[in-house]
Amino acid sequence: MFPDALSVLVAIDDCTKANGCLQILPGSQKCGRIEHGAVAGQTGADLKRVAAIQERLPLMYVEMKKGDALFFHSNVLHQSDENNSPGKRWVLIMAYNRASNSPVDYLADPFPKYTPLEKVPNSAIKNCTNLSDFSGKMFLNPLDDKTVKADVSR
Question: Which cofactor does it need (predicted)?
Answer without folding.
Answer: Fe cation
